[in-house]
Specification:
By secondary structure, the protein is of the alpha/beta class. Helices cover 40% and strands 17% of the residues. The protein has a 5-stranded parallel beta sheet with strand order 2-1-3-6-7, sandwiched between helices. A two-stranded antiparallel ribbon has the order 4-5. Helix 1 packs across helix 7.
Length: 221
């Protein structure tokens, strides 16, 4: 398990656009990770600071459903990696998610992480407001989704449902989608093809550009 000291601090270079990259796969050198790395590199070449979080290496307790964070604006459990990632999420100018599709959804540990960070995504403290207030309005995010299922199953079920999981988290939080790359039939893929490399480069450039625009607006407000 990673210790808190291993969690990067996006404030190390306040002059650069800060992108938080989250890998949801337990395979830290697998295809999803390599796709994400290609997009990360493209964003760095756009002048962005990119920090990777590997969910499989984090140590945190699952949400207990106490709902106290809705009023307090923070999780009442002792600080752990989930609370620290929530801080990094707030500081970021853009977010990149890489995840495999498990039973047509995101991996359990990634779901547990976002369950713990509800208070950092939306403001539900007001009992008068029926709809939670988004805390990341206009912040861009990109998705990289992989599936072992071949076409057309990967498109009809796995990709649709997995991207839907993430959309239900990010859209109410005010995030704006910057781009999505889906790669299916991964059992037969051992290396990135030029086509896949080009897609990831395009995704990284687009997110880096959108995140830079967001950072500029936030710094001017």
């Amino acid at each position: 398990m990673a210790t808190s000291k291993q969690i990067p601090n996006l404030r190390q270079d306040g002059q650069k656009t800060r992108i938080l990259s989250i890998l949801g796969s337990p395979r830290l050198t697998g295809l999803t990770a390599r796709l994400l790395e290609a997009a990360e590199q493209a964003a760095r070449e756009r002048g962005c600071t990119v920090e990777r979080i590997n969910v499989a290496n984090l140590s945190f307790r699952p949400c207990t459903g106490c709902m106290k964070c809705r009023k307090a604006g923070r999780c009442v459990l002792p600080d752990d990696d989930a609370s620290r990632i929530a801080g990094l999420l707030r500081e970021s100018d853009g977010v990149m998610i890489g995840t495999p599709s498990y039973w047509g959804g995101i991996p359990g540990e990634m779901k547990m992480l976002f369950d713990r960070m509800v208070y950092a995504m939306v403001d539900t403290s007001s009992e008068r407001e029926m709809i939670p207030r988004p805390l990341h309005k206009g912040k861009p995010y990109s998705l990289v989704v992989t599936s072992t299922a071949p076409w057309p199953g990967n498109v009809l079920t796995m990709f649709t449902d997995t991207t839907g999981d993430l959309r239900r988290i990010f859209r109410p939080s005010g995030f704006r989608k910057s781009g999505t790359v889906r790669v299916g039939g991964t059992r037969k893929i051992s290396t990135l093809s030029p086509r896949e490399q080009a897609k990831m480069t395009k995704l990284g450039i687009k997110l880096g550009t959108d995140a830079s625009k967001f950072a500029s607006k936030r710094n001017n407000n």
